[in-house]
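Let us begin with a simple case.
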Amino acid sequence: KATAKARAAMQLEWHRLRRVESPDGTLGCWDESSVMEWGNVRRAARKANKLVNVVLVFGIVVEKNFELDASDARRKYKGRAVFQGNHVKDQDGNWAIFAELGSSPATMEAARAADAYGLFPGHAVQQSDAEQAYTQAWLRGTETWIRLPKDQWPDSWKGMDDPVCPLKLALYGHPDSGTDWEQHATDHVVSQGFQPVDGWPSCFWHPRLKLFLVIYV
């Protein structure tokens, strides 16, 4: 909070999450237009005998490549808004229980196999980063409402006591986000002709293109 560049990096992250595109084409990692007082959400859930969760989304900032000279463009602040996964409560104030199915990340051997395959004559290796990968997928499971830091409240929230809004997309910190995104990524690459490699999680083969794909988050 004492560093202007750090504040700007964090605000950029909030802006990006508000503008991220959902699979259905709508914008926003969460739906601020559906804001309600948590007390009302809780009472409605109890009345309907429905399970809902509530959690804080908060910001963290790191300085990447801190060891470089201050004038180096690669040294910069990066903000990230994070789901507080260790403090999730339900409508009755109980600790939330997650499926915790866990994702199946690719192994180091898979990465080495990709490198080796790419070194064959006439072959090549390419690497690409998926920006804000988790937020490409819907958040599945229990309906989840989030609290935002007060300095991120829209003007329309002013005067509210404990405003919350529904979380739409998988967000960093949620115990099941990795699983949700992994399923989303698998469904997409399979639809493009890739086939999962038996026994090698998050690895795919395209028989027509002879392309070996490793996905890692």
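The second case is a distinct protein. As before, the sequence precedes its structure tokens.
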Amino acid sequence: MEIKKLNKYLFFIYLNGDRGLEVLKSLILKDYKNLEVFIDKKNIIIEDFCSKNDLVLNSNIKVNSDKHIVYVMRKNPYLSVVAGFSQIFNNKLIDLPQKGTVNLHAGPLPEYRGGSPLNWQIIEGKSKIGISLIKMNEGIDTGEVIETKYFSLSKSQNIGDAHSIANKFFPSLVLNFLGKLNKNSVKLVKQKTRNAKYWHQRQDSDGLIRWEKMNALQVHNFVRALTNPYKGAFSYYRGKKVRILKTDIIKEGFYGTPGRIIKNKNSFIVICSDKGIKIENYIIEGYKGTLLNGKYLTNG
């Protein structure tokens, strides 16, 4: 029996940023051109890409609105793919496409359900970072797992590196799934709820470094998890917010009161709960001066 070619079918792609854009690019390269794209906020890069590739773009949508539900019912897509889209789908919308809806999640499941999974994995000191493709259901990241992919992240790499690497692997998860779907060989794995952990979406206010409670390795992981493209972990210096953007674990042992700044040759050391950590890049917001030896970084 001849295997049907899925690229003849209509696919809905819900996205906002680079994750979804890389998926779009990979689908087009594989001759999946019957695509409709949905965004819920303005994104010039995605808009330009869709225009250049003659893709239908639907913007400023409310996915659970009656208007959108009716639209999906009328178009009858084969599959919906969610890639970094910020709105939560209701159960009716999830089930409307012929093959349902799949979601690209930036964490292994069920251990990293919820928000900011890449950031949390780095904060937790994971050297193997996981991402997942799941079949969506009415729960938050509770659907059956289609595939999980792990990649290595060294202690010298940060959240920007993690996003870049993950965005290279996300398209392969989708293409692998479509290949299996084409051959009717998809195997779904139910999540083990006893291992489930929910993590909240991180906000900038969550980025305060507590020198007296965090050891040097914890501070280092915290900083690299929150640096560019995010605002950065922070502390306070003379009442001004200091963004700590890059640190380094050093072999030399510097000890003392947590938060104490030590000038060591051309670099700054700050004492953590166990020992000192090197500050390689920082910004003091609204202050033109530099950190000074003998002063302190504080909680506010």
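Helices lie at 18-29, 44-52, 66-75, 91-95, 117-123, 159-182, 216-226. The longest strand covers residues 240-248.
Keep these points in mind for the review questions at the end of the chapter.
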